[in-house]
Amino acid sequence: MIIQQRNQEELVLSEWGFLPVDQTNLRDDEANGLFRAAEHAARELKLPEGAVLNRVVGGLRAGQVCGVISHRGRSLEILPKIDGTGTESRLSLVRMLSVAYDLRVSEGELAQLQTQRKTLLELLIGLFARRLSHAMKGGLQRQYIPHEEDLPFLRGSLDIARQLSRRPVAPTLLMCRFDELSENTPINRLLKATALRLFRVCKSSNTRRELQIILDSFHSIAHTNNPLSERIHLDRSAAAFSALIPLARLLLSGDWQNTTSGRSAGTALLFPMNILFEQYITKRAQQTVGREIVRKQHSKHHALKNQLFQLRPDLVFEYGDRPIILDTKWKQLDRTDPKRLGVSQSDIYQMLAYGHSYTTAQQKPRLVLLYPHHADLSAPEGVLRQWSVTGSDLPLSIATVDISKDRSGSDWVEFFSNVAPNRKPVVFE
User: Fold this and answer.
1) Residue 364, SS3 per DSSP
2) Residue 285 located in a structural domain
3) Do 107 and 178 share a domain, yes or no?
């Protein structure tokens, strides 16, 4: 379904939602343009065809990818299908991105974003502009940069080897090596490149004005053709800008796609939700339980004895002789199926393969499938079902997490102590 139609240029759609052409002032050629841009972005992200948008009879249908896609001035924002309004869904998405990409968006910043009726892209651009403007109040970062120059007087130290080889050519010059305090640093080149790129796509007049002031201050900074390759060294001189680096890299990275193809021009900032959900839970688990215990994309085992078909569970909690294997699934459970909750057979088979391969005489794993929570389940988040695997008595938990919640560190401790406890769970049907 359509969450909201903001104005003539911007449309907002929920994940898996349908956008009819005849009810949104969206012309057929515009729908085709958005679809072509989505196809191009899906290829760039190495996603299957139709993962972002599908062209169906009468309109467009969203897939399991959230973010913003635009084509010739028309913008379509796809938000996660979770409880709450479009604004709440957008903020939940920002919260997940903040954790997954280490953006460090504070709850105060989220509260400020909540009052702004902007797309995800405009929110992130505005966040970057405000953070950079604030950081620049103390001046741009400066570092001592090594230089080599031929001078009529000695500066720094003399490069004796060069002096001897160049003396017949330039007998009156000294070959000097010295350090010069400069604002042309890798961080400043990265930030300038980000501000320049965002200025070209930003629609908010206030944010564009702020970015223009920033760019004016960066006039002496050299242009870089590959800002993501700049070698950033975070020291005391970069402290004010450190929180900006992950955001700048996100806005310049492969997730930010130029969807220009032939005569079709567009942009997209898209995030496959199954991957983002996995990254979000992984970061929270490692922050809460510890990186030395929580291992991501564990790859110690294979499905076959001849080392074929490597198994990669999303998370393994290494709790001695009773490890927990947890896999995240960005799917909605079905309360109308009280016995199975709509859990797919393929997901169960996958967990059985994990359980069988991780079971040894000394180690009996526990299995957890974790889904996003929603209000229709008529039960609080956490463990909803606790099953036992036939023939092995390995416990298999079906659990949910409410991603719309604002949680403290102690709240996450309580959540993981319930869903992935360091103790043997009680099995119930």
Assistant:
1) coil
2) no
3) no
**Strand spans (E) along 251-350:** 256-258, 266-272, 294-296, 315-317, 324-328
Instruction: Indicate whether 118 and 33 sit together in one domain.
Output: yes
Distance CA 269, CA 114 (A): 20
CB atoms within 10 A of CB 413: 13
> pTM for the complete prediction?
0.84
Q: How many separate domains does the chain show? A: 3
My answer on whether 16 and 157 are in the same domain is no
| Structural domain containing residue 79 | 2-137+187-273
Integer Cα distance of 277 and 402 in angstroms: 11
Q: What is the structure's pLDDT at 429?
A: 47
Burial 241-253, CB ≥16 within 10 A → b, else e: beebbbbbbbbbe
Confirm whether 283 is domain-assigned.
no
pLDDT of the residue at 416: 95
10-residue mean pLDDT profile of the chain (429 residues): values are 52 92 82 91 88 93 92 89 82 92 86 79 92 92 84 85 78 85 91 93 91 94 89 85 92 64 66 95 94 81 66 87 92 90 92 86 90 89 90 89 90 94 63
Q: Report pLDDT for 100.
A: 94
- Is residue 279 in some structural domain? no
Give the integer Cα–Cα distance in Å for 82 and 59. 23
* Lookup: tokens for 271: 């995030």
CA distance 34 to 76: 8
Verify that 299 and 338 share a domain, yes or no.
yes
Give residues with Cβ within 8 angstroms of 313, minimum separation 6: 297, 298, 325, 326, 327, 354
CA–CA dist 30, 257 (Å, integer): 19
Q: Give the pair of three-digit tokens for residue 150.
A: 């031929």
